[in-house]
Design a protein that fits this description.
three-stranded antiparallel β-sheet
């Protein structure tokens, strides 16, 4: 703190520390105008995983893969896919013939971080 401004250092923040805070201060002349600070605490994306389930469609002679990308982090991450036969969003559904394969990358990002993971699926029939 000095005569021209007031500073504050906050450490070890947690997500639940987000909110509005009022700062009251005074100097020799009296109370200074109240300042309101809105604090947003964000968490890094620490882990990205792809959940996978598959089934065999006998009538079409193909495998169907259902993939879901999951990530930690706050605010809730958004998802994108890259690779073979991709759709947008958290979920990915692909169909492959026997002996075909596809490698997919899910990327999760929020306002403070980005992380990705890969998954290769193979239709074995």
């Amino acid at each position: 703190m000095n005569k021209d401004n007031i500073s504050i250092t906050i450490e070890d923040l947690k997500l639940q520390d987000s909110g509005s805070f009022s700062i009251f201060a005074e100097n020799k002349a009296g109370q200074l105008p109240t300042k309101v600070i809105v604090l947003h605490v964000h968490d890094l994306i620490r882990d990205v995983q792809i959940e996978l389930s598959d089934s065999w469609l006998e009538s079409k002679n193909m495998c169907v893969f259902h993939l879901r990308c999951l990530a930690s982090g706050d605010p809730n991450p958004s998802y994108s896919w890259s690779g073979d036969l991709v759709e947008t969003g958290q979920y990915q559904n692909i169909s492959l013939r026997p002996a075909e394969s596809a490698t997919l990358t899910c990327t999760a990002n929020n306002t403070v971080s980005i992380k990705h993971t890969h998954k290769t699926v193979v239709c074995t029939g």
